[in-house]
Amino acid sequence: MEKESGFLYDPNKKELLGTILPQILRDLTLHGECTIPVDAANIINLKLFPTLQDPPFVCEYQVPVAIRDLRALLENSEWDLALQQIVPFIDGVRYVKRISLEADVEIAIVKKCVRQLLYYGCVTLIDIFLHSNSYANTPKIAVLANDPRLQAECAVYIARSGSAPPSFARIFALYCSVQPSLRMSDFSVVYSESLALIDARRFITFGLIHGFLRRVHRYPIYVDHSSSPQQQKQQGQQTLQQNQQQQQKGRPFGLSSTSPLLSGMNPIGAAPLSIQPNGASNALNANIISGSSGATGGNVASMSSSKRAMVSKASQLEKDLLRMMDGSHHTDNICTKFLLRYADVESTIQMNPNCCAVHK
């Protein structure tokens, strides 16, 4: 305006500032935006944008859940190509690492994309849903009891497909019945009649999104008792005796072929067993393990290099797994880190006398 018409230097136009500036202040204060015509050729358009907080860092075991229609946003705006690649995989079930594997996008890029969606309020993050999970109520459950709009939204969201929404009295009674000592598998059995018309996964998801449920995580702890030289020597002698016994039985190492880590390992090294096509990984594991357990030579040198590598990899995996059991990593973190099933990690905890777990 100044270059085109000399607005500030023209005394007649400069007088308009006394009217324009108070109007800008008033409109921005009341409405957050203003549209003020100055003359036939110029209009002042201003808008205030809120300062958003930095989103939290995204972990590979977290599950992004869309709270806005992401597909509609993609159609109405030009988003980053990486975002367009991963949005179809955000379904409230897949965790970040699984999205990375299935979308064939680097994990660091997926985390950045999800964090960007968090920043603009398009998604929220919850935990992986398993029937072995435990949950607890939070004080925010009072909000559900006092908000009729949220009650109606909850009934529609958690209802099974094709079923009528359950009554709020039943829904609230179920939420109040959630206990840290009751796993979801047991909860589904105890309250099977009340859950007949309710999707258990969406029931938990809605509670996590709105904050009146929280996940009770299981933190494995491995205590190494071989700190003294004498204990290390005793442990070494025991390991040597076990290896000799295994060799006499026709097995090359002390690691059993039925070890949960060996049976749960993914030989392809690309994706968890649950997402391998046609169960190929299970068949491959079965063939390798059966071949290993059927060996009769009793000599390490007689083993093929692939079998030795498989056992060596399982042994290293067990060491890395125990090293991560320091009380600061929960089971979701460990499972996604090593692409193991929860049952395999739990078996390792139960079979190792130096392992325990705490819940918090």
From TrEMBL:
<dbReference type="InterPro" id="IPR009348">
    <property type="entry name" value="NPR2-like"/>
</dbReference>
<dbReference type="GO" id="GO:1904262">
    <property type="term" value="P:negative regulation of TORC1 signaling"/>
</dbReference>
<dbReference type="GO" id="GO:0010508">
    <property type="term" value="P:positive regulation of autophagy"/>
</dbReference>
<dbReference type="GO" id="GO:0005774">
    <property type="term" value="C:vacuolar membrane"/>
</dbReference>
<dbReference type="Pfam" id="PF06218">
    <property type="entry name" value="NPR2"/>
</dbReference>
<dbReference type="GO" id="GO:1990130">
    <property type="term" value="C:GATOR1 complex"/>
</dbReference>
<comment type="similarity">
    <text>Belongs to the NPR2 family.</text>
</comment>
<feature type="compositionally biased region" description="Low complexity">
    <location>
        <begin position="230"/>
        <end position="248"/>
    </location>
</feature>
<feature type="region of interest" description="Disordered">
    <location>
        <begin position="225"/>
        <end position="256"/>
    </location>
</feature>
<protein>
    <recommendedName>
        <fullName>Nitrogen permease regulator 2</fullName>
    </recommendedName>
</protein>
<dbReference type="GO" id="GO:0005096">
    <property type="term" value="F:GTPase activator activity"/>
</dbReference>
